[in-house]
Every structure is written in C-alpha cells, then in structure tokens.
Amino acid sequence: MALTLKLAQLQSKATRASQLVSKHAPLYYKQLLEQNKHYIQDPPTVEKCNLLSKQLFYTRLASVPSRYEAFRKEMDYVKLMWKKRNEWKIEDAGIATLFGLECFAWYCTGEIAGRGFTFTGYYI
C-alpha cells in the first residue's frame, strides 16, 4: 500500500516537473540562441557545416603536439614524484591513491560502455 502511494507521489512530481520544463523550455531555448547568436552561421547550409567540421578536425589535429608536450611534462613530474616517494607526506600519498582510484573508475566505466552498458562480469 505504501509503495503504491509513493509511486503515485513520484508520478505526480514527474508530471509537475514535465509541465514546468515544457512551460519554460521554449523561453530558455530562445535566450540561449540569442546569447550565442555570434556562433551561429547564417545561412546554415550543408557546405558550411562540412567546412566547420573540417576546420574543427584539423584544428584539433594541429593541437596534438602541444597536448603531447603537456602530457610529457606531466609524466616527467610523475616520474620525479615516484623517485621521491620515500619523502612523501600523507597528503601526497592520498592524492596518489585518489588518482589511482579515479583511473580505475574511468577504466571500469569504459569497459561497461564498451559492453553496451551491461554489468556482466563485475562482482562489486
């Protein structure tokens, strides 16, 4: 009985939220477009979209060397910290542990996404 009551309350809240979104979404959409109209290409043609797509791709490709250099600097810092691990404070060890846990969490997320968001094989 309590489950039915909670389900009805949840449905009522979802309905109110849906009504609120449908009431305010068009205004938000118009404001968003107005604030960012300097980014909008006029006229929005397929050719213009293809050009922008290629510009984005090659701009990102051109930024690879600088990002690689930043990655190398980060790796050099990590190597230096690993060499000096005997001098670590508790804070440094905590940061390293949190970083390792974050890497593991991203790995697990990638594995789950790669399997189509199924949780088979993990016993957590």
Q: How would you characterize the overall build of this protein?
A:
The protein is mainly alpha-helical. The chain has a domain at 1-39. The chain is built from four helices and no strands. It has helices at residues 2-35, 46-62, 64-83, 90-114. The longest helix is centred in the N-terminal third of the chain and has 34 residues, at 2-35. The two termini are 32 Å apart. The mean pLDDT is 88.
Outline:
The chain is mainly α.
Write the layout of secondary structure elements.
Elements: H1 2-35, H2 46-62, H3 64-83, H4 90-114
Family: Belongs to the ATPase g subunit family.
Pfam families: ATP-synt_G
Keywords: ATP synthesis, CF(0), Hydrogen ion transport, Ion transport, Membrane, Mitochondrion, Transport
Q: Which stretches are low in confidence, meaning pLDDT under 50 for 5 or more residues running?
A: none
Q: What is the helix content?
A: over 70%
Mean pLDDT: 88
Q: How much is the radius of gyration in Å?
A: 25 Å
Number of helices: 4
Structural class: mainly alpha
Main sheet, how many strands, which sense, barrel? none
List keywords for this structure.
124 residues, 77% helix, 0% strand, flat, transport, hydrogen ion transport, membrane
